Amino acid sequence: xxxxxxxxxxxxxxxxxxxxxxxxxxxxxxxxxxxxxxxxxxxxxxxxxxxxxxxxxxxxxxxxxxxxxxxxxxxxxxxxxxxxxxxxxxxxxxxxxxxxxxxxxxxxxxxxxxxxxxxxxxxxxxxxxxxxxxxxxxxxxxxxxxxxxxxxxxxxxxxxxxxxxxxxxxxxxxxxxxxxxxxxxxxxxxxxxxxxxxxxxxxxxxxxxxxxxxxxxxxxxxxxxxxxxxxxxxxxxxxxxxxxxxxxxxxxxxxxxxxxxxxxxxxxxxxxxxxxxxxxxxxxxxxxxxxxxxxxxxxxxxxxxx
Length: 306
Description:
Elements: H1 2-23, H2 31-47, E1 52-55, E2 61-64, H3 69-77, H4 82-91, E3 97-101, H5 107-116, E4 119-123, H6 127-139, E5 146-149, E6 152-153, E7 158-163, E8 172-173, E9 180-186, H7 188-192, E10 199-202, H8 208-213, H9 216-220, E11 226-230, H10 242-251, E12 255-261, E13 266-268, E14 279-283, H11 286-295, E15 300-301, E16 304-305
Parallel strand pairs: 3-4, 3-10, 4-5, 6-9, 10-11
Antiparallel strand pairs: 1-2, 7-8, 7-9, 11-14, 12-13, 12-14, 15-16
Helix pairs in contact: 1-2
């Protein structure tokens, strides 16, 4: 009976996913189209598990491995982290430099470099996910605009151990073990070597305080304008506190945290709901950022303009 029970669980899981896909705001008014798209992708993965190349945004594509959660949620919703990815699309310009710390499979890197046309510096420490990042770079023909480094980012130069089998959830661990790799770690200021990104995304599964500590010159530059950073209680595993990270960012002249409303193109204070959303946005010059957001063109995501 194990087989039938497992089959039933799989069916229930897929039904839950489909309901979430249909309920997503990007699919409002286009739910039948969204259901057909997801069912096609699911069937293709079932028939030929492994690598698929799926449509992303406006001619961009993503190489999708079943284990790569960040790609999977983009396949479902167009933009996996809808508000934050929309912020990247609306804020960046082709003349900008974007920095993707904890790039994973490269879903932000591809948006910035392929869709917007910006230059990107990406850092991803784990060999398997770095390989998928590079597949996405080459699949989109953006190797001339992406400087992708296989390294971790931290407070100081050294070597650290990372889990290597958790794909989107790989993280720093104390020492060697099964499914663990040792990789080079560099401070962000050393990686950038004087280059100042206009915007940056940091998602490193709790290691955010260490990234911030090694990025003082970058974060303090008047040319640096926007940061998307994961602020979850995972930071406590590394001896950090969210309020301390917030304090450091504000000491560098950044304002926030904010959430982004892609429909009104406005930054919204999270208020009492801050703990319900991991990613927070910090900005330097509210007027500059607001003008960019309002002035951006519209982008086609799953046949809906945002």
